[in-house]
């Protein structure tokens, strides 16, 4: 069977990490030590067998002196289409007061809100030039403050 999106994302992440490690002239053991992870675990990440947490990706990025955001995108944690560079996601991922599970939950909720808004925007655009919600209109200015029964015609 074909691998799902997660498998492909992890493989591309592993390939990217390997490329960055080789470009930095670091052995697998050296990078593992610098990032504070075990050598076998790092090897599994590079081979696409494990998907690391955002915290581990941040440690690896720091050890490689590359952008953690790039690793988050390659791992599928951030979307490159977010427009503003994923500042909300980065804030969540960088919050040391949250557990990994809490971070993932917040990211999932945020992504669902974005998806919901995208659907709403698409439906609105598909409706074309639809009039805005009805707005209550005031009576004409010349009779606005007058009692309708007291209006007389001058003659």
Automatic annotation (TrEMBL):
GO cellular component, one term: cytosol
CDD domains: HTH_XRE (cd00093)
SUPFAM superfamilies: lambda repressor-like DNA-binding domains
Region feature (Disordered): 130-155
GO terms of molecular function: DNA binding; DNA-binding transcription factor activity
InterPro entries registered for this protein in UniProt: Cro/C1-type_HTH (IPR001387), Lambda_DNA-bd_dom_sf (IPR010982), TransReg_Diox_bact_type (IPR050807)
Entry keyword DNA-binding: yes
Domain HTH cro/C1-type: 17-71
Pfam annotation, one family: HTH_3
Keywords for the protein's UniProt record, in alphabetical order: DNA-binding
SMART domains in the cross-refs: HTH_XRE
Keyword Ribonucleoprotein: no
Protein name according to UniProt: Transcriptional regulator with XRE-family HTH domain
Protein's organism: Nocardioides thalensis
Lineage: Bacteria, Bacillati, Actinomycetota, Actinomycetes, Propionibacteriales
